[in-house]
Amino acid sequence: MQYLKLCTFLLALGVLLGCESGSKTAQTTSTKAAKTYTAFIGTYSKKEGHVDGKGEGIYLYQLDSATGYLDKIGVQDGIVNPSFLTLSANGKYLYAVEEIGSDVDEAGRVVAYRRADDHLEKINQQPTFAFAPCHVSTDSKSRYVFVANYVGVIAVYPVAANGGLEASTFHEAYQGKGPHSRQDAPHPHSVNLSPDEQYLYVPDLGTDNIYTYKINYDSPQKPLTKIGATKVHPTSGPRHFTFHPSLPKAYVVNELSCTVTLMNWDKNTGKLDTVQSISTLPADFKGSNTCSDLHITSNGQFLYAANRGHNSIVGYSIDPTTGALSLIGHASTQGEVPRNFAISPDGRFLYAANQNSDNIVILSIDKDGQLKYRKEEKVFTPVCVQFQ
User: Fold this and answer.
1) pTM to 2 decimals?
2) Contact, 114 vs 123, CB < 8 A?
3) 35 pLDDT band (50/70/90 cuts)?
4) CA angle 44, 45, 46 (to 5 degrees)
5) What is the DSSP string of 112-141?
6) What confidence tier does 34 reach under pLDDT thresholds 50, 70, 90?
7) In DSSP terms, which residues pair with 278 in a beta bridge?
8) Helix, strand, or coil here: 241?
9) Which tens digit of pLDDT belongs to each residue from 221-231?
10) Helix or strand or coil: residue 25?
11) Sheet containing 109-116, strands listed edge to edge, beginning at the edge strand earlier in sequence
12) What one-character DSSP code corresponds to residue 323?
């Protein structure tokens, strides 16, 4: 009898150990199969008129592609309101705007960093010639860095051999206004390169224009030549802008009218022609709302835009021939004021940065484009999410 009990015990122990061993092996295999990406999160670090900034600077996270979850690596402090960020194509350098006012400096600033494992090393900074720089971008060969200031100015900086920023060789102060109460002055809100990087497009929320520039890479002292402007519907307030990855189509999200506008893009002339505008809100929504951001999945199948007020991400399917948008639905961001969002490099997850509720919400992207809640990551006043 004792012998049978002992055999039963040993057998059960062997099964248990075997299961644990198999579980560890499965976990190891899963870990090896899953890719990891670095995520950089810009924040507001001080109290401003429109936000109670509580962030510590630029947060560094690691993304596990198997789960979509984020693990904090560290934080880069010593920078004020690093609201928007962009990475060089090779991932070696990061550029961040300091969205500041006259209480901090004589103008806003743009800062260059060198990547160093789990932290950033500051190279240098340059003034942006106006307050509240709100967007930054760079070309794939790191020749120029472009900055938009909400207070009416864009600027261009040649990039030095060490990744730092040389003195600006171009800046332009915009003029004009629009019919909406928020359009009392020009407000360039983003700086966007065309897929072939021959043109720069600047949506101006204040004048309902999208300005087009030819980029001159052979003339660093004259990097931009303005070639025209595309007018969107009055009181639209164009804000963020993107191109389809394979079709000659461009899209702009309009902050004030809460719409997304589709445009044909002529790569030979840079010209834009409006084709379609579609609401970002449910038909029965009666509250106040403004739009903030938009992105397209890398396969070109879906476009998403962010609503602040309705606090949602709206999803659209994209017609593979015409680029036209059809509503999929809305997903709650489980927080307040989604200022920006990003899609993971593998296209499986969406990360919505809720500026006023100190959280980033992770949503999975289904095959039909529907978004489903996965997890929440607590981050103080997040604004911008960038993956590398």
Assistant:
1) 0.91
2) yes
3) confident
4) 100
5) EEEEETTEEEEEEEEE-SSS-EEEEEE-TT
6) confident
7) 260
8) strand
9) 999 999 999 99
10) helix
11) 85-87, 93-98, 109-116, 119-127
12) -
Q: What distance in Å separates the CA atoms of residue 259 and residue 239, rounded to the nearest whole number?
A: 11
- The torsion angles phi and psi of 310, rounded to 5 degrees, stand at -70, -20
Integer distance in angstroms from the first to the last C-alpha of the chain? 63
- H or E, element range at 201: strand 199-204
What value does the mean pLDDT of the chain take? 92
Distance CA 76, CA 382 (A): 14
Give per-residue pLDDT as tens, 295-320: 999 999 999 999 999 999 999 999 99
Tokens standing for residue 259? 């719409």
Token pair in block for residue 317: 């399917």
Count the Cβ atoms, other than its own, within 10 Å of residue 336.
15
Strand, coil or helix: what is 5?
helix
Cβ burial of 92 (10 Å; 0-12, 13-18, 19+) is middle
Q: Are 210 and 191 in contact (CB under 8 A)?
A: no
Longest dimension (CA), the chain: 95
| The pLDDT value given to residue 19 | 36
SS3 331: strand
- Residue 236 Ramachandran class (φ > 0 left, ψ -120 to 50 alpha, else beta): alpha
Residue with tokens 């021959």: 198
Residue environment code for 13-32, b if the CB has 16+ CB neighbours within 10 A, otherwise e: eeeeeeeeeeeeeeeeeeee
SS3 18: helix
Distance CA(146)–CA(143), nearest Å, equals 10
pLDDT band, residue 118 (cuts 50/70/90): confident
